[in-house]
UniProtKB/TrEMBL annotation:
This is NAD(P)-dependent oxidoreductase. SUPFAM superfamilies: NAD(P)-binding Rossmann-fold domains (SSF51735). It comes from Dyella kyungheensis. Residues 3-178 form the NAD-dependent epimerase/dehydratase domain. It holds the Pfam family Epimerase.
Amino acid sequence: MRILVTGSSGHLGEALARASLELGHEVIGVDVAEGRYTNRLGSICDRAFVRRCMAGVGTVYHPATLHKPHLATHSRQDFLDVNLTGTLSLLEEAVASGVDSFVYTSTTSVFGDALSPPAGEPAAWITEDVMPVPKNIYGVTKAAAEDLCQLFARNQGLATMVLRTSRFFPEEDDDRSVRGRYSDDNLKTNEYLHRRVDIEDVVGAHLLAARRAPMLGFRRYIISATTPFLPEDLDGLRAHAPLVVGRRVPGYDAIYAQHGWKMAQGIDRVYVNQRARNELGWTPRHDFAALIARLATGEDIRSPLARLIGSKGYHAETFRDGPYPVDV
């Protein structure tokens, strides 16, 4: 089968291209930047270019996007052009070309202000039923692109799925104060409790979504590591997270002590992947307990695929105060 992968020079794009090639597919890798798995250089905003790339394609994986780190370097119009107009071009050309399935990579950032309950309230239990409240142009355009996918599923019969991925980037956190409190591996391991996923598991979810979209119809799924928490933990998580983690993952504190690490005192949201596991048959392998087991034997917390792909960055230039010029 011929597979089109947008953003093929980026983290997930490269990972999807690698996985598709290993499965014996032909890959059309599309990006504005050169890369090992990019063989069509151009913009998804260029309709004629998209049309040429779409010829004979059976599955489209669409992770290409402007991200949160681009908020300080790109205009709102840029976000509309890439995240919305680009997605519209892909959807329309996918219909015209008779594509079998279209998988759109969205983000848990679409939930926006719904992720941060008021002070004194329990942590938020984030499922697909939570109403998004985007708080910036990134979230607005990602949410609107999701709706475009639903529209094309409804009106044009295109088998589409939306995967709302949590954090899987290898770069440091964009919040300077957070970088000052935790080492990078410490912070990322903490996040596997509630807001991070390994790229290997993200790829697995995309492959399943492409296969099952024609049968299941339009779906939105949260793609995040399986949390050890339950709804009854939400009160305690907000102010006494180490105690709750100790109950759910006994012995983690001894491993943390060996590494000189610390657990976050409070956790404000928990992403729940139950629906994706139930309906897609997705079985993510990388969660907090798995990372603790690796740390206990001196292994790397990252999957082999994550280590292979490494860091891509978001900008050609460097910035004085951090990996990207965003601190919000």
